[in-house]
Write a structure and sequence with these properties.
The model has no long low-confidence stretch (mean pLDDT 88). With 86 residues, the chain is an alpha+beta fold. The strands form two sheets. A three-stranded antiparallel beta sheet has the order 1-5-2. It has a two-stranded antiparallel ribbon with strand order 3-4. It contains two helices and five strands.
Length: 86
């Protein structure tokens, strides 16, 4: 329900992923569940402002991760209102 409420606001939402696979999984889930209800503001890509600090992966301590390696942005769809002439 959190994503649905975010989309209802029509405000920009920017999210990050800790590596490419993580971000692809998140983006695929968004497209599958909410693709028709959202506009992409920033296509998923490597974050040019990513942290330089490396941390251990959340699920695997042998894996290194950068907490904000990738970035993407979206918002709820906006519909243009057109007035009808009488």
């Amino acid at each position: 329900p959190t994503v649905e409420k975010l989309l209802e606001t029509k405000c920009a939402v920017f999210a990050t992923g800790f590596h490419e696979r993580d971000m692809r999984t998140d983006v695929a889930a968004l497209k599958e569940d909410f693709g028709e209800q959202m506009d992409w503001l920033l296509e998923p890509r490597e974050n040019p402002f990513a942290s330089l600090k490396r941390d251990f992966g959340v699920r695997n301590l042998r894996e290194w991760a950068i907490s904000n390696w990738g970035i993407y942005g979206f918002r709820g769809k906006r519909y243009e209102v057109q007035s009808q002439s009488q």
